[in-house]
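Field reference: sequence -> structure
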Amino acid sequence: MTLMILHTRNASRRKHLAKAAETAHALGHRAIVVVEEPSWERDYVDEVYAAPTGDLQATVDRCVEIAKQESEPIAGVIAFVEHSVPAAAAVAEQLGLPYISPETAAKSRDKLSMRQAFANVGISQPSFALATSIEEAQQAAASSIGYPLVMKPIIGGGSMFVRRVDSPEELAEHFEEIRAGAWAGFDYDPLFFLKSRYSEGILLEEYLVGNEISVESYVQNGETTVVAVHDKPTPMDGPFFEETFYATPTELTGDTLERVKKFTALAHQGLGITQGATHTEFRVSASGEPYILETGARLGGGPIYQSVLLSTGIDMVEVLTKVSLGADADVVVDSERFRHVGFTLHFAERPGELLAVNGVESLEAGEDVSEVMIYRQIGEKVDVPPRVWQAHGHVIFTGDSREDVVHKQREINETLRFHVR
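Structure field:
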């Protein structure tokens, strides 16, 4: 039997593919990857197939063809990058394999449909509206959302083309730039066809004051298990919302943490997620009320996988692979044994040609540093938020306490430097 991994090229997913293949092999299965323009993926799995992953139907057709070519039947389908989730759902439906439905996969990427699904199950969330023109945006701001508000793409990710505005004047100044980037920046996405459905509009949301958290869970047989919660200790007040620092375990306790877990399970119910891993983000007010921002039907991005593993001892890729292949995940979450872990995401200070990255060797020599990974090559052109969704590198590290993790984060930020011209 064979595990099929639908993938969108992403340099931070190397360990994901390696662990998925290892788990599949332990269960007696092969592991293959389907990706556009394969490169490094060949080093981690049994076979790699090329497919036009920006085209949903073409991807499905190609995967059906691959299934016929494979010497063993396809036993399960998974995806580790959010852009691949709709394709994985469509392929699974076509091949008769367990996965979330294509409708659920679309809701987990379409932020307007997601908001409506959350409203249907009664989860606290910001007020929202669709705006296709500056006139519609100004009317929504005046009648229901207010200022400050946040503009964001409907199918975006990684805080790309997300911006806070504080006044009608700022809305008028920045609306068209965000609206254009919200679609042009994701023309490779399998859900790009939503551009016409929504008349090239963007999502407007009430800006909520509070700290952000992310929740890593998995669902099997419709039951939700929350594995880890990351805090984002660096204030994310705007105007842009690049994510640069995560720390776990969370400092949330009591009723607030229980409401986070309850809302996470409700989000799965509202979207129809009955199996697989999920990544859910909240803002938590000063009074302790969590407001849901979004839920992705996939593992958290970047270093979240390794951070959860270091902190809890639970390997979420192994869990997801087992769930996808119909095996029991068999997970025990023991918060008493959690370790303090942090990770930082790093960008160049400005766009340009990458000349050098300083501080890597110094950081790698630190006994508490688990990994330093640079995604970009010297000589490569790099851009900065809000025009990019992926950082240029990350550092994962452990600490003795939250205070220790915060202290080390500051040292890492002073040490790692990207130089561009």
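Note: The radius of gyration is 21 Å.
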